[in-house]
Amino acid sequence: MSDTPQTTQDRSVRAVLLDLDGTLIDAFRPIIIALNQTLADFGLPQMTDDEVRRHTGNGECSMTSLFGEQREAAAARFLEYHDEHLFDVRPMPGAAELLDWLTVQGVASAIVTSKSQLRADKQLDFLGWGTKLGAVIGLCEGRRQKPDPHTVHLACEALNMPVRDCIMVGDGPADIKAALRAGAVPVGLTHSFTADELSDAGAAFCFASLSEVQTWLQGLLQHGQAQS
Fold first, then answer.
1. Are 192 and 171 in contact, with CB atoms under 8 Å apart?
2. Quick one: DSSP state of residue 109?
3. What is the C-alpha to C-alpha distance for residues 10 and 12, in angstroms, rounded to an integer?
4. What is the mean pLDDT of residues 31-44?
5. How far apart are alpha carbons 120 and 27 in whole angstroms?
6. Dihedral of CA 38/118/92/191: which sign?
7. What span, in angstroms and rounded, lies between the C-alpha atoms of 173 and 3?
8. pLDDT, tens digit, for every residue of 54-88?
9. Which of 187, 145, 173 is nearest to 6 (CA)?
10. DSSP string covering 44-97, please?
11. Which 3-state string (H, E, C) describes 70-83?
């Protein structure tokens, strides 16, 4: 496990790993609604949309930090509310185009999310993306959530790719730290956190949109490597 920033220099790029919420799809509306309803039920103050996005992006055992010893009951209540709005999701700008482009280029792709496997699969099927990806790695029993690198390694194994040949794209520090610790190249999207915040977490590159990521990847494939 390494905490040294990884770059694409002297590496081939054979696979792109993608976070789900806030990176590939906008799935925050169900999360925001469910979390604030749960907070209200437990007599806790509401959170703004930006606060929820940033709290989720940090990935550090969010229910424990908010609800303490009541975390299990709160998590169950949260999921009840969340699943009422499970399909209130939409693609992030450039997401479908990026997935289609990766397929045409022969670059493998996978989802690495801290959402449950069941819910991730359902949302991707709802969007019609189930066949666009080589693997979808969500949480289930025995899997550790980001920033632990466990699910990054599982995605690489599912794609049969060495981790050093993979890029991980995500919008939160947890994504960046997981990629870094696994040995993949961490790429940040500045949807919820600034480029400075993601760079401090270990991002080798930061972009404002998926279309910018696609343009950068196109340059990598054309020239063989990028200058960091």
1. yes
2. E
3. 7
4. 94
5. 10
6. positive
7. 13
8. 887 776 556 777 888 898 899 899 999 999 999 99
9. 187
10. -----HHHHHHHHHH-S-HHHHHHGGGHHHHHHHHHHHHHTTTT--EEPTTHHH
11. HHHHHHHHHHHHHH
Residue 21 per-residue DSSP state: B
Distances 134 to 16, 92, 116, 167 between C-alpha atoms, Å = 10, 19, 18, 14
Q: pTM for this structure?
A: 0.88
Domain residues of the chain, as ranges?
15-26+90-223, 28-83
CATH number for the region 15-26+90-223 comes to: 3.40.50.1000
Q: What is the dihedral of CA 168, 169, 170, 176, to 10 degrees?
A: 40
CB 180 within 8 A of CB 170: no
Residue 150: how many CB atoms within 10 A of its CB?
Answer: 18
How far apart CA 204 and CA 202 sit, in angstroms, is: 6
CA distance 10 to 210: 24
Report the 10 Å Cβ neighbour count for 96. Answer: 16
Instruction: Quote the crossing angle between the two packed helices 28-41 and 49-58, to the nearest 10°.
Output: 100
Tens digit of pLDDT for each residue in 80-122?
A: 999 999 999 999 999 999 999 999 999 999 999 999 999 999 9
Separation CA 52–CA 54 (nearest Å) = 5
